[in-house]
Every structure is written in C-alpha cells, then in structure tokens.
Write a structure and sequence with these properties.
It is a single chain. The chain has 126 residues and is mainly β. The chain is built from no helices and eleven strands. It is globular.
C-alpha cells in the first residue's frame, strides 16, 4: 500500500500563488502515474492535472492551463502542483492521487486511481 500526504493548502487572495506538495510513502513512487483532483462544495470530484510516471507527459483541465503546473521529483517521492493567479473558483479541497502506471500513460478519471491523500483545503477570496 501507498500512503499519500498533501500539504501547502491555505487561504489566499485572488491573484496569489500556492504550491501544493504530495509525498508518498514506500519506494514505488516512480512507478505511479499521479494526479491532482479537487472537489468544491456541492460538486463532483474532478481532475485538475495529471502526470505520467516519468514526468514527461502532463494533462491540465482547461480552466487551469497557463496558471497551474504539475511536476514530480521521483527522488523525493513527491508530486507538486504550482498554482498561480488563483481565482475564487479554484476554491476546493485538493486531493493527490496515484495509480500504478501502464506504460507512459496518465489518467483522468477518479475511478482510475487507487491511492488517495486526505486532501488539503485551498480557499481563494475575492
């Protein structure tokens, strides 16, 4: 089993930046495709960004393109989400997730992920 722990959330004003981190236990992190999801009150959990095991392929939800960057450091068993130009609509609980990789794929659906962190709250005020 893999344990994922997120950090870096907080309360910021619109236009500010945050960097979320997700650190995995164990020694198999490099074999996992990773993703960041978010869930706002009354809404379904949805993908923000995804990255394959090597970090060479990424995906971003349209609304965060150009503002958010997903990256990973396999030596540190950590995946990051750099969030710039934050907007009130970015307010949500952000979850880190992982799934054993299949080739060089990344994954976009919550049901495809098997490891989940507990979430970290990001609140953006106007």
């Amino acid at each position: 089993q893999v344990q994922l722990v997120e950090s870096g959330g907080g309360l910021v004003q619109a236009g500010a930046s945050l960097r979320l981190s997700c650190t995995a236990s164990g020694r198999t992190f490099s074999s996992l495709a990773m993703g960041w999801f978010r869930q706002a009150p009354g809404k379904e959990r949805s993908l923000v960004a995804a990255i394959n095991w090597s970090g060479g392929m990424t995906y971003y939800e349209y609304s965060v393109k150009g503002r958010f960057t997903i990256s990973r450091d396999n030596a540190k068993n950590t995946v990051f989400l750099q969030m710039n130009s934050l907007k009130p609509e970015d307010t949500a609980v952000y979850y880190c997730a992982g799934v054993p990789a299949s080739g060089y794929d990344y994954y976009t659906l919550p049901a495809e992920y098997v490891y989940w962190g507990q979430g970290t709250q990001v609140t953006v005020s106007s």
